[in-house]
Amino acid sequence: MPLPAVAYASEPAVDAASGDDAFEPQLGRHGKDVMWLPTPDALVARMLSMAGLGPQDKLVDLGSGDGKIVIAAARDFQAQALGVEFDPKMVEVSRRNAQDAGVSERARFVQGDIFEAEFPQATVVAMYLLPELNLRLRPKLMAMAPGTRIVTHQFDMGRWQPDEASLMANRAGYLWIVPANAGGQWQLNYPLEGETGQARLDIAQIFQKIQGSAELGALKTTLRQPRLSGERIAFAFTDARGELREFNGVIQGERMRGTVTGPQGSASFTAKRIGAAPPIGGSGPPSQQELNAAAAALGGE
Questions:
Q1: Distances from the Cα of 155 to the Cαs of 68, 170, 179, 191, in angstroms?
Q2: Of 83, 117, 146, 168, which has the highest C-beta tally within 10 A?
Q3: How many domains does the chain have?
Q4: Euclidean distance between the first and final Cα of the chain, in Å?
Q5: Which of 177, 192, 216 is the last residue of a domain?
Q6: Which domain holds residue 216?
Q7: For the purposes of burial, counting CB atoms within 10 Å of the CB of 186, is it exposed (0-12), middle (13-18) or buried (19 or more)?
Q8: What angle do helix axes 41-50 and 68-77 make, rounded to 10 degrees?
Q9: Contact partners, residue 134, CB within 8 Å, separation at least 6
Q10: Residue 64 falls inside a structural domain
Q11: Tens of pLDDT along 192-249?
Q12: Same structural domain for residues 170 and 188?
């Protein structure tokens, strides 16, 4: 049965240490799908900094181990944070560590399966899992709200290229920003010296990478340097007058709005999607080729 949506401030803190012999984990302790190897403190700080974590955020750590990422998020970034961990003994350790760090009100832990847990309110997701597990989680992560940040230790997401990658003491940390759906056709309207300029945009998207064209009457031209980061989109084209128009805006469902800059200065633009949004390329299950590559990365068959 799937876990209910996780709560960030409702579960009471628990003192897991009963008696004199509190459980202490050993490096390499095996869990359901992975073994426990904690992320170095410096890389934890780097990952959370890349994510831009702050007091307004809600973080979930999938496979939270001894809780160090959750505790760092609460202690050093004042975020609400929750760890989902399959091993009940590690959950006990995490709760004890959070209590010792004085962050039990902001750092919570639940025992559960990362593939069954629901965390729709999370704005940041942290993981240190094996490559195949990252790929299996990728469709769920891609379906989260645009702008959600995902950070991982050591392993990437296959064809979904990271928005930023860092290396500290030969340990890799990666950041992805869940993209909005920019694909399909859009009717674009923008001010043009007392009248309304119009264009039909045609945008193709694979993960956060976009490309496309603008049709302006008899003229069709490619979009220049199109970029997508979360809800934010930017592109430019040279219009039928030979003037460069640069667009910076946000996508909110079926509508786009923002600022266009041209020779006469800046003004507001709007766009509306025509028809249904196509699925984002790459948002489905991983291919067998990707799964094979993930296995090979760990010396599998």
A1: 18, 13, 20, 46
A2: 83
A3: 2
A4: 32
A5: 177
A6: 184-274
A7: buried
A8: 60
A9: 127, 152, 155, 156, 157, 158, 294
A10: yes
A11: 887 899 999 999 999 999 999 999 999 999 999 999 999 999 999 999 999 999 999 9
A12: no
Are residues 49 and 169 both part of a single domain? yes
In this structure, what CATH number is given to the domain that contains residue 86?
3.40.50.150
Say yes or no to pLDDT of 163 above 70: yes
Tell whether 125 and 249 lie within a shared domain. Answer: no
- 108 has which bridge partners? 82
Whether residue 144 sits in one domain with residue 199 = no
Q: What is the mean pLDDT of residues 260-272?
A: 96
pLDDT tens sequence across 61-99: 999 999 999 999 999 999 999 999 999 999 999 999 999
Give yes or no: residues 66 and 99 share one domain: yes
13 domain residue, yes or no: no
Contact yes or no for 222/235 (Cβ under 8 A) = no
Question: Which conformational region is residue 200 in: left (phi greater than 0), alpha (psi within -120 to 50 degrees), or beta?
Answer: beta
* Same domain flag for 145 and 81: yes
Do 114 and 206 reside in the same domain of the chain?
no
